[in-house]
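Lesson 9: reading folded outputs for more than one chain in a single document. The general rule is that every protein is listed as its sequence immediately followed by its structure tokens, and records are never interleaved. Here is the first one.
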Amino acid sequence: MVGFGAYSLLGGDDDGGTANVASTSDSTPSGTPSEEPEPVTDEEVLAASAAFFDAWTLGDTATAAGLTDDPQSARVVLDALAERAGLADLALEPSAPDGATVPFAVSATVALDDDEVEPAPWEYTSALEVVRERGTGEAVVAWDPALIHPALEDDQIIEAGPVDELPPVEVLDVNGDVLTAEDHPSLTPILEDLRERYGDASGGTAGGELRIVDAEGETVERLLELAEPAPGQVPTTIDPVLQAAAEESVAARGNASVVAVQPSTGAIQAVANAPADGMNTAFEGSYAPGSTFKIVTASLLIDRGLASANAAHPCPKYFEHGGWRFQNLDEFEIEGGTFADSFAASCNTAFISQAPELADDDLGNQARDVFGLGLTWSIGTTSMDGTVPTQSDAQMAASLIGQGGVRMNPLNMASVSATVQSGVFRQPYLVPPSFDNRELAQAPRGLSGSTAQELRSLMNRTAVNGSAAEALAGLGGDIGGKTGSAEVDGQDLPNAWFTAYRNDLAVAALVPESGHGGTNAGPVVAEVLRARG
């Protein structure tokens, strides 16, 4: 309760010399102005202010608001202060009135519902005015938001809360150093997403403050800082050397995306897009992968005994299936060649010719069960995880060469190369699963040893003296590659694709509407592979 013993200093005159009245006006029935109400007396000032202070101190917002000349507006502000400001130990100490004005001091403790933020004292001074309400003649407190706090205005309230919705987050590379959007512009949307996803789990704190907010909830003024935000940390598998190379490579082409994956672990070591402020095509794109998808188809044909690297295999100029006539680039053919010849030259008809031997769902099953495509991946940020729908007739045949309804992105195709290199699908991840104990996708079965060996030989030949050789020239070690050029209706040039591995690094790139995969996407992949040394 508020003490008012000091009010005896006022002298106690009944007329008090004050002349304050509420600003509302009444008229008599005849339309002539009503008589001015009597000024409030010193005793009324004491009584009205004391009642208001008592109700406010006790948290009786309804009573306190009812003691003003605008109960509705007062109730909104007082309720918010009681419910949202986190005040404890509220004390109001009035000073001697100056006429109808009563100065007072406020002291309280502000506490958030957060064990990481220590309570803090809050003190300030304000004043209220007592007026006589026209019509009723009652002595009431003149409502003004500024009496609650001098900085408070109409349509504003006081609340306590975190400085931001989420704590700041430092996203770390594989070496434990901080990744920034300034150094790696392509990572900007990913860094923002990681903050939203892992802000609460990062170990950081959002800080705390007491503030004035407007009707839209926007901060107008900070009244008290309780604690500064402290950043948490989220680890990633990004290799800064590879990331820098990836960023530089796609930026030089203006419109391109690339992803690098470590086959032995599934760790994503680089991801870059150009333009940097566009869509995260590298992870979320949905494009026909063209001939790069022949890696998956080749695994199916080898498993079914329909192809073998060194066995004779047809590569005619044309092949009809489902009412469509398919052909090779520039209508080439290979007479008396092997499957390895067809793979290295990216012969479409060599794959289409096997369509009559396959069921409609064979390719989708192989993609999912061996390469993990179409499973639900959990990489630590948003991703599109590959789509191989069941189709029939001509569309099924088109799917065998990465057209039809097949949709992939560089992340998916880097994973395909990684699966060939290691012999088993390891779901790619950007945030180590140990950080949040999430489960990674598991493919039902791996490549058989013989199929994996044949695929590696096919990709190695393509990298050494096939369609990928020019881009990968000069790169040694355990190497394999595959080109792709995906035709798209309405485009003058196809989308260029390239995927390759070198030792324990698999990379895939997409350069939309640019032409041949080896010429346009191949150099992007090669530059990232070279950065590993």
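And here is the second record, again sequence then tokens.
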Amino acid sequence: MSATTGAELARALEHANLPSLLPVLVQLTGDRRWLAEPYRPTRSRGMDDNDSGGFAPEVAAEIRQAVLDAVLAHEQGTPVAIPAPTGELMRELLSLANGEPATPDYAEMLAEDLGFTRPPALPIGPTGITAVIIGAGVSGMLAAIRLREAGVEHVVLEKNAEVGGGWWENTYPGAGVDTPSHLYSYSFAPRDWSTHFGKRDEVEEYLRGIADAYDLRRVIRFGTEVVAADYDERDATWTVRTADGDTVTASVLISATGALNRPRVPEIPGLDTFTGPIFHTARWPSGLDLTGRRVAVVGAGASAMQVVPAIADTAGALTVYQRSPQWIAPSDVYFERIDEAVHLLMNRVPYYRGWYRARLAWNVNDRVHPSLQVDPDWEHPDRSVNAVNDAHRRVFTRYLESELAGRPDLVAKSLPDYPPFGKRMLLDNGWYRTLRRDDVELVAEGVAEITPTGLVGDGGTVTGADVIVLATGFHTHRFLWPIEIRGRAGVRLADVWGPQDAHAHLGITVPGFPNLFLTCGPGTALGHGGSFITVAECQVRYIVDLLRRMVRDDLRAVEVRAEVEREYTRRHDEAHARMLWTHPGMTNWYRNAAGRIVSTMPWQVVDYWRMTHEADLADFHVERAAPAVAR
């Protein structure tokens, strides 16, 4: 090992997340002294990649030097002392990285995520099972990868011309994720992300790279939109019909259509009369030039928050119509680029990438979940649901007031009157700074009418516009819509669910629809934090495990028992009834018109991981394959 190479690593360690280095040291050296004081970090605050862990400078220097020595020794042939920590040691290491005690369940989940353990897998071998996957986005690609590994013949039907799902469709300015980049990636396929929060083009590039690396395009039929699927009870098969009239038949149907897939355009009077461009954010016109034009944005949620700051410098004037304000959290690193030194550490220091990801997961997944439970004795139920939630309110309010200082008009329009986290929490990407601009106006009204030349608010505000952007969300309650799914006896899934009341066991399986498995199903979106990709991996693992059991037991069909699904739905609804999202002070896309939470899960991520870790055939009616007849 050259001195120059060692010097490069030493310089890179100045950029390291120190708490993430500590379990690396224990693994490389086996020395348990790094588990004790003075090497225990203080509790993490936020997601800063350069978090010092609260160490004194001399302790930080000692940690960096020890890591340098251990890595160089490893590269010169010294074996790793603890290559795969599990059990109590894994819990200790996770607690060390996080700066606070970790639970055994969380340690078990992250040991699997880091590759220290593997989920139990029944051998599947050659199988007569075939599958159709609807959609080649995050979940559909994952399902294709895992089915190939399991030996299940499959085809993916994708309505678009490329992989990526929503990331291929949503090209609006500013589009990106609000989950840290190192979490918004498959556990088995890391990337050297350029920023802490991936922007649309990089995320889409990542997904296209996955399609290349796993040779997925050979099983994907692009430009193929599914319009219907029917179950044949005689053959235990699904026949899928496409928009161009073709059919595909398979024994298993897996939906990977996504939750934020079908744009919702509200029925605003005069919508068709506007003489300029008018479009949903998910249908942003290619080549649109907004230079000097008057732009009106309808909506102030997640998409609007990304679009508005991104186009403010280009538009001549910008007006935002906001029915309800959003709670916004600060982020110091939203646009910050990740230093190349960090990439060097991720790729050269054994286990560092995994521990950095594990620490992010601890901070982002479930930490806020307890604060979303309603305290029935809380004395201020109008503004918050418990004391911690009220503290969050004070923190976010102070941030809002500091960003909008000197603009009491904007403070009045922007400060929500409902509890924090009641709607999807947003990260400040320059929203408040943009609202302060002289050429930006925030109208705290819904839109009552669209005219040929602009908009009229429900409070009477009239705005002239050359372009109207509809940042009005998606049909989040209409799962699989507009595909017509028919199960046993031709029963329509849309009739079972109704227009807004979908439910499924684990969000994955529905009684009356054998061999139909959902990803991104009802009650599986994350409202409290975490990565959607983590949930997708849970769901696909469960589905593949169920297919393995079908092969093992020579089953041709499995159908979740109605009583099992009812009990799960009962627990799901009862858990939500004790949580923030049923608060009457706001509306959100999580719940339907009747107030039932349809879209999001009430569980912690680690709870859902446990629930979906292994399939239990006792939860299903099963049909055995007919015995072969001698001829």
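What the second record shows: The first helix runs from residue 3 to 13.
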